[in-house]
Amino acid sequence: MKNGKKMRFLITAGGTREYLDPVRYITNASSGRMGYALAAAALKAGHSVTLISAPTGLVPPAGAEVVSVVSAGDMFKAVKKHFKTCDCLIMAAAVSDYTPVEAAKVKRKKEKKILTLKLKPTEDILAWAGRHKKQNVVVGFALEDRNLKRNAEKKLISKNADMIVANSPAAIGADSSRVLLKTPQGSWIDITGDKAKTARAIIRHITSLILG
């Protein structure tokens, strides 16, 4: 690739929903704002963006191709469909680690007895991308509540990613946050600011990684 080339970003955002019945689901506290900010930053830098979004209350940035999904399974299918044609995948979504073994077809009625749910692991999208990448660059996110650098670096290596973006639970829903970036051979890069500023910095570092 040559400097100045328009890159194709594939960015995931939001928290997936794993339905227990037609009205109840398991999810997480992700607002999707980081993924949307990354999409906006990439577009502003002149790149093209496909944004795979789980449900959020956000308005997608103008110019993004938006693929709406709900569950982790939906997101996995969408990533597989678009992965080959992207230069960089950024897995900013908070993908559920577990999904019900079987969702009820009708609403579960409240009972006085304890309800036990059987859950199974979802597909690991980041690990799949790390195994199947060719010229693609794969960027993962690691939200860690302890041993931030150690656990994030472990994820970077085990998933065969090209970069990891590490942050703490304090970033959830916050206007500004601190993130740490690392490549397998690089040192930690510390970025603090609002999510728009952080997103611009992440896109710049990814572009530098790809274009040199």
Characterization of this structure:
The protein has about 210 residues and is of the alpha/beta class. It has a single domain (about 10-110, about 115-210), classed as CoaB-like (Rossmann fold, 3-Layer(aba) Sandwich), CATH 3.40.50.10300. It has helices at about 35-45, 70-85, 125-130, 150-160, 195-210; strands spanning about 10-15, 20, 25, 50-55, 65-70, 90, 100, 120, 135-145, 165, 175-180, 190-195. An 8-stranded mixed sheet has the order 5-4-1-6-9-10-11-12, with helices on both faces. Strands 2-3 form a two-stranded antiparallel sheet. Strands 7-8 form a two-stranded antiparallel ribbon. A hairpin with a 5-residue loop joins strand 2 and strand 3 (about 25). Helix 1 packs across helix 5. The longest helix has 17 residues, at about 195-210. The mean pLDDT is about 95.
